[in-house]
Structures are given as C-alpha cells and as structure tokens.
Design goal:
The complex is a heterodimer of chains A (about 190) and B (about 375). Chain A is of the alpha/beta class and about 190 residues long. In chain A, about 40% of the residues lie in helices and about 10% in strands. With about 375 residues, chain B is α/β, with parallel strands linked by helices. Classes of the chains: A alpha/beta (about 190), B alpha/beta (about 375).
C-alpha cells in the first residue's frame, strides 16, 4: 500500500475524521520537518504507553492515582459517577464541584453486549465506605437512565444519599428556543421558588 | 405550509426535475411508471425523512447514480420561508439540511412540514392487521408531538435491549430494563388514549360528510392486557397494570426469549354500526372510512401544529367514484390545504373540482422522468372558473 494512502486510511478511522480531512492531515504532515513529525508520533506512543486508569476512580492518568484522587483539598465524602473521562474534564471546567469522581467507561447496553461486569461498577462498590453522597451524572438517554436506576438499586441498602443531576433549560438560553423534550422535562422537574 | 417548488435529482427515473406548485392543487398526470409518484415521494422525504410507500431508501436512487436528492421550498402559514434538502446515498446516513440548520436527524425533521399522504397502500389501515392501525396512529401523533416522537424512539430502543437480555438469558439485569419499559409503555398508552379520544369526533364528522350515510363510526383503543374500563386511568395505575402483566408472562418470556407485553402489541379497532370494519364493511365503506381517517388527520395536524398540512393523493381518485372524489377534493379546498395529486387521466380529474375563480391549479405532464407544465389543461381549469 502507498504510504500516503495508509496514513489517510488510518486517520479516517478516528472519530469525526472523514476521508477529506484525513487527506488534508496527511498532506499537512508531509510538509512538516522530519523532526516535528517524529516528536508528534512519539508523543502519541508515549501517551498510549504511560496513561492508564487511576486505580481508584478509573479516569485516565499517567500516575497510580490521578490528581483529583490524590489531592488533599477534595471533599472525600461525595462521589460523582460519570460515563467517560471527558465528563470529568467537563465538570472540572465548571469548577464548582469539590468531591471525587468515578468513571464507569460506559453504560449498560444489552444490545451491544455491555452488562454490569463490563463497566466499572464493582470498583465503585468497593470504594463506598465513608461516602455520604453519590451524584449520578450520566447522559440523559435511555441507557444512561437505566444505568442510573441500576446503581440506585445496588446501593439502596447502604444508607447513602443518591442524587442525580437536574435536567432542563441551559443557562443563558432563551425559553422559546429550547426544544420541546427539554422543556417538557424542565416543567416536570420544576422546583419551588 | 404551502410548497412553492419541489426539485429532485437522480430520484428513481428522474434525472433532474423541478415543479413550481400551485397554491391549491398541483396535478401530475401521465402513464403508469412515468415518475409521477416519485415527485410526491420527494415531498414526503423532505417532510418526514422517508417515503410513504414501504420501500428501502436505496431503491430511490436512480440506477447508475451514487446518490439522489430531493428539496422543497415552502412558506409557513405565518409567511416565513422554509427550505429543506435531503441527500440519500447508499450505506451512509441521510444528509438533511433545512432553514433550521445542517446535518439534522430525520427525527428532528418530522413535524416541521406536516404532510398527510393517501396512497393505495394505505388501504391496509382499515383492511390490515393491528400493526397497520398502530402505525397510522403513531405517524399522526409523531407529527403532532415532539415528545411522542421521542417516546416511541426510546420505547423501541428499550424493547430491543430487553429482547437482547432475554435472548442471552441475562435475567439479573431484566428488572431495571423492565422498569423503564413499563414507565415508557404507560406514557404511550396514556397519550394514545387521549389522542384517540380527540380524533374520533373528527373522523365521525368527516365520514358523514364524505359518505352522506348515517352509519355510526367508532374507534376503540385496546391496549394489550389493559382492561377496557381502566384505559383512561392515570399513568401510575397503568404502570401497575403493566407490571402485573409482566409478572403473568415472565416465565413464558424466558422460554420464548422475547418481550410478550407492552404497547407494541396494542390494537385500535375501527367499528361501524357496532361491528368491526375489517369483517363487515363494504368496499365503499372502507374507502369512505379511509378518506375520513385521512381528513381527520389533516384537521388534527392543523389544530395541533397551527400549520396547514400539505396533502398528497397518490393515484387514489381512479378507485373512487366521481361523487366521492369530488367530495374529497372540495373538502380539501374548503379546509384551504394545498394538495398534490397523481393521476393517469388529468382532464377527467379536473372535471371534479368545483371551479372557483380563486382556485389555483397547475397541471404537469410526466413522461419517462420528464416533467412539463401542461399550460393548456391548467389554463382550461382557470378559464372555466372565470
């Protein structure tokens, strides 16, 4: 196979990258110096070699314990459960949450053959001593909702408070532009003023 | 909504075709297999993401071409321009863009340009099995309500997950998925019942206009496993009923490895003078009923979306007698809805329309994928009116 074609094919396997973009990326790399391409390739290999899952919260880290799990300043009584490491970054960017995280790396999805043993549920159960609140922040689709209920049932006998994040209108958005499903949920989940 | 123009490329036998549409009636006349229906299908694709005839999307692409496109330019009832274009390519997701953005999903398209289609295939609504009537109701409701659209999608997805679990004998996860299935099922039953109660008066009304008969029409909703006196109960009661039903069938589900309860098994029975239409009605009654159902659909859509639907009649007037088809056409004109009609005999069809000076009619001759404005027939319709 032609070396350019091979790189194009490989780029095209990445999410959100189509053939056209893959070709542009390949030609862009051809115009770079040998050295900078090597730095780039090495960085990718190094990332894959050194990054693993945090032994406690299962997010990606290059250490045994991730920065959040090893921090002294976090509230160790709350765990926020999310689907993916990128969700941790999203909540961290918001900057208001001071507790710990737990990354499931997926949700229950029998159609794809994913059951409770295929996501990090046992790891979650094993770290619940001393925890007073579990916040479930999974995506608002049927798989996320069913996983939320599954976890709720699993921990229901332990006397830990279980909450889920609210659903509704985004801050700064106009009501009239919200879609009907979101609006209906927002009305359903209304709170006293 | 009023459609100004419809354009297609490489759709079935059309290389490139475009029609500019009359505000009231656009007639597509031509021999069988000339590509009349394809133009109506293009409107349907732009309105609900798919054609109204049950075929695979890939069969819409002209042989030898890699993709087909359909686009519509329209104006809403409050005179806001609306454009939508759809590209269908084999093996990849449909590309849909409209005034509201590019890359929208078919699910989000539904309801923007409300349509009501009537084709010979729709006979199955009164003749066919429960699934035909269920999908009639679901289609109308999906165009009326975004929440119902999402609900159907979620329900179908949970049903598939649940069947996958049953197939793999993973009983321990079944509880949570069943809870979700029951929760969504109860909401579907509640909404179907409410909607049907509102639809029935409109169907009766239209039936009496179309058939001029005194028969009593009724539609009874029969949700699977729900006793008739408890159909109108609130959602929590419905959830309890579904849960009881699940416990009754649970053992059999494990043996059969599939879901055996839920709203995907519901029936909507249509009754004429107290007896099921399917078994007792005459051919004429079937036809009147189907038209009444479709006209009621038009009225419901108009009422719920506050937007006049566009009506597509695919080769239906050849099956109706003169009086009945004249009734239908004039009813649509009376409701001020734009309609598109395919027929093999253009001039005979025009005789049936009440000529009114304000009625605008365009007639297109379609032949082997070529579309041409038939000025003679269109002008004839207008001059007679004058």
């Amino acid at each position: 196979m032609d070396p350019i074609d091979k790189v194009v094919e490989l780029f095209a396997t990445l999410p959100t990258i189509g053939r056209k973009t893959a070709r542009r990326l390949a030609f862009h790399l051809l115009r770079q110096t040998q050295e900078s391409v090597e730095t780039f390739a090495e960085a990718i290999v190094h990332m894959r070699e050194s990054v693993r899952e945090c032994t406690v919260c299962q997010t990606f880290t290059d250490r045994e314990l991730c920065g959040i799990c090893s921090s002294e300043r976090r509230d160790r009584s709350a765990i926020c459960v999310v689907e993916q490491p990128t969700d941790v970054m999203a909540i961290e960017r918001a900057g208001d949450y001071r507790g710990l995280y737990h990354v499931l790396h997926g949700t229950l999805s029998p159609l794809d053959g994913i059951g409770p043993d295929d996501i990090r549920l046992m790891e979650l159960m094993s770290r619940l001593s001393g925890i007073s609140e579990i916040i479930l922040a999974l995506n608002p689709n049927v798989e996320g909702e069913v996983t939320t209920q599954y976890i709720n049932k699993m921990v229901s006998t332990l006397g830990i408070k279980v909450t889920r994040i609210a659903r509704g209108i985004p801050i700064g958005a106009d009501l009239e532009f919200a879609d009907d499903a979101t609006l209906a949920r927002a009305i359903e989940g209304r709170v006293p003023v | 909504m009023v459609i100004q123009s419809v354009s297609v490329a490489h759709l079935r036998c059309h290389e490139h075709s475009r029609i500019d549409c009359a505000a009231d009636i656009t007639v597509l006349a031509g021999p069988n297999g000339s590509g009349k229906t394809s133009m109506l299908e293009a409107i349907s694709i732009c309105a609900i993401g798919t054609t109204f005839v049950p075929v695979q999307d890939s069969s819409l692409i002209m042989s030898g071409a890699s993709a087909c496109t359909a686009s519509v330019e329209a104006t809403s009832d409050v005179e806001i321009p609306y454009r939508v274009g759809v590209e269908i390519r084999e093996g990849v997701r449909k590309k849909i863009s409209s005034t509201h953005g590019s890359n929208i999903s078919a699910k989000d398209l539904i309801g923007e340009l409300p349509i009501v289609a009537l084709s010979p295939d729709h006979k199955s609504i009164t003749f066919g099995g429960p699934s035909d009537r269920r999908s009639y109701l679901d289609r109308v409701m999906a165009q009326c309500s975004r929440r119902y659209r999402d609900l159907l999608y979620e329900h179908r997805r949970v049903l598939k997950h649940r069947n996958a679990l049953l197939g793999r004998h993973q009983w321990n996860e079944l509880d949570v998925w069943s809870d979700k299935f029951i929760e969504l099922g109860a909401e579907i039953i509640e909404r179907r019942n409410q909607f049907l109660n509102e639809l029935i008066p409109a169907v009766r009304d239209e039936y009496s206009i179309v058939s001029e008969e005194k028969e009593l029409i009724d539609m009874t909703y029969q949700p699977d496993g729900v006793p008739s006196e408890r159909i109108g109960a609130d959602r929590t009661v419905l959830m309890d009923i579904l849960r009881e039903q699940w416990h009754r069938v649970a053992d059999r589900e494990r043996v059969r490895e599939t879901t055996l309860f839920g709203p995907q098994k519901d029936e909507v029975e249509i009754v004429i003078n107290g007896r099921p239409v399917r078994d007792t009605a005459s051919q004429g009654q079937h036809k009147s009923l189907l038209i009444a159902l479709k006209l009621a659909e038009c009225r419901k859509l108009l009422e719920q979306r506050n937007e006049r639907p566009v009506v597509l009649f695919d080769d239906v007037f050849s099956e109706l007698d003169f009086d009945r088809s004249a009734q239908v056409l004039n009813r649509i004109l009376h409701l001020r809805m734009q309609s598109f009609i395919t027929t093999t005999d253009g001039s005979r069809l025009l005789e049936r329309i009440d000529k009114h000076p304000n009625t605008s009619v365009s007639v297109y001759a379609v032949d082997r994928g070529q579309v041409e404005l038939n000025t003679a027939l269109g002008a004839e319709a207008r001059s007679e009116a004058a």
